[in-house]
Specification:
Blueprint: H1 2-11, E1 15-24, E2 27-36, H2 43-49, E3 55-58, E4 61-65, H3 70-85
Parallel strand pairs: 1-3
Antiparallel strand pairs: 1-2, 3-4
Amino acid sequence: LLESQQARLQRRQLKITLLFNVQAANFKIFILQEVDITVPNCSPWFGTYKYDIPVFHLHGQFLMKHRVDIQKLEYRLLNLELQDDGSG
């Protein structure tokens, strides 16, 4: 049973999504990075999140898992923009 679970996990494209806020000139750029956690150099991510895909981190901090909460994502991105502008 364990082998079949591992085989199913390997067949899936397991990815962790990382968002980085990069400031360029006078506008904001948010970079979405997908990480394949099945590759050897990402084994710590695999051990942590193999049953929790999708997972989002924002600025190196955990944001959400299992499903995308668009309102939460928009709220956090807006807060980052306000902080970077000195307004929040």
